[in-house]
């Protein structure tokens, strides 16, 4: 069936308008596409190619070594496995403690305290400051040999030591810094607590459930999606931790390698020893490991994440 003259003109005008809209959309998207290709996607693909070379900054001396960087990483680099151990301890100890502390504070703040907005702002402030260079420098002075902690202990006649200079306490000091930034997950937990209907708690109380039973049977299952969300984000951030450990340990990973994080060793291999190919391989292994851990968390979610209003 052929279109009449007016219908053809209307269809042509409609197609012309759609074409102009499409062109305008691509024009507005073009800066982002250029940035994505040349700033994000390009370097990612380049690092993957470099991970199979012994690139040290000179294209003339670059050689293709295949899987040698990965084989060396898993077989002969003792510092690599030391950094893996330190990073795993940091992530799987400090992140659960931070989330538990954030949840506990959120539960307390949800009890209808006066000046809730002020308390919420105070507790959220450390997350805004984060683990920046300034905060890391402050941490060095607080936990150093002559820092604030030792000065307070000195008032009671207790002789302190450099907590960041002792292998037995250096990593724990950085863990405390991570726990200190509990404000962001706390705000998310607090928002989730506000969404739980009060009638559920009232019914559980009438059935004889005490506070602890109400927490385990109502509060925690209702917040389990937020626990998953905060856990994934905090875990990824923990594996990528760099600034605080670099500043606190002066970039050495000391004392005695106790704060040699994976990212810090990667930085040393790349920009101190100019083993850029090897560092690229380390980066891709870290990416794959984070992806695997994240996938495991999401796959396990069906066993412990409840998308309802409690059990």
TrEMBL record:
Q: Where in the cell is it found?
A: Cell membrane
Where would you say this protein principally sits, based on its record?
membrane
- Pfam families under this entry? BPD_transp_1
CDD domains registered for this protein in UniProt: TM_PBP2
Membrane topology qualifier: Multi-pass membrane protein
Q: This protein's superkingdom?
A: Bacteria
| Keyword presence, Transmembrane helix | yes
All copies of the ABC transmembrane type-1 domain together span: 84-297
Name the PROSITE patterns for this protein: ABC_TM1
InterPro entries from the entry?
Answer: ABC_transporter_permease, MetI-like, MetI-like_sf
- Which ranges of the sequence are coiled-coil? none
Membrane among keywords: yes
Q: Name one GO cellular component term.
A: plasma membrane
Protein name (record): ABC transporter permease
Q: What's the source species' lineage? A: Bacteria, Pseudomonadati, Pseudomonadota, Alphaproteobacteria, Hyphomicrobiales
């Amino acid at each position: 069936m052929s279109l009449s003259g007016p219908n053809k003109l209307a269809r042509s005008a409609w197609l012309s308008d759609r074409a102009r809209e499409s062109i305008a959309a691509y024009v507005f998207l073009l800066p982002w596409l250029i940035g994505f290709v040349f700033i994000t996607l390009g370097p990612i693909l380049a690092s993957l190619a470099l991970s199979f070379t012994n690139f040290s900054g000179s294209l003339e001396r670059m050689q293709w070594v295949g899987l040698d960087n990965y084989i060396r990483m898993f077989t002969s680099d003792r510092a690599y496995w030391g950094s893996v151990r330190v990073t795993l301890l940091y992530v799987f100890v400090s992140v659960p403690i931070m989330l538990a502390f954030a949840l506990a504070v959120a539960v307390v703040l949800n009890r209808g305290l006066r000046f809730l907005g002020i308390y919420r702002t105070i507790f959220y402030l450390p997350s805004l400051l984060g683990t920046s260079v300034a905060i890391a420098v402050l941490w060095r002075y607080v936990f150093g040999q002559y820092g604030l902690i030792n000065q307070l202990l000195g008032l009671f006649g207790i002789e302190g030591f450099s907590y960041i200079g002792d292998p037995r306490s250096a990593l724990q000091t950085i863990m405390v810094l991570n726990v200190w930034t509990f404000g962001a997950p706390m705000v998310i937990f607090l928002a989730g607590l506000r969404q739980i209907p009060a009638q559920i708690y009232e019914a559980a109380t009438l059935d004889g459930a005490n506070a602890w039973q109400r927490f385990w049977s109502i509060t925690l299952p209702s917040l389990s999606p937020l626990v998953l969300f905060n856990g994934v984000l905090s875990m990824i951030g923990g594996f990528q931790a760099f600034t605080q450990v670099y500043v606190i340990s002066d970039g050495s990973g000391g004392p005695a390698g106790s704060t040699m994080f994976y990212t810090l060793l990667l930085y040393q291999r790349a920009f101190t020893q100019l083993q850029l190919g090897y560092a690229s391989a380390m980066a891709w292994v870290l990416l794959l490991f984070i992806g695997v851990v994240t996938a495991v968390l999401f796959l396990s979610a069906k066993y412990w994440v409840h998308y309802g209003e409690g059990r």
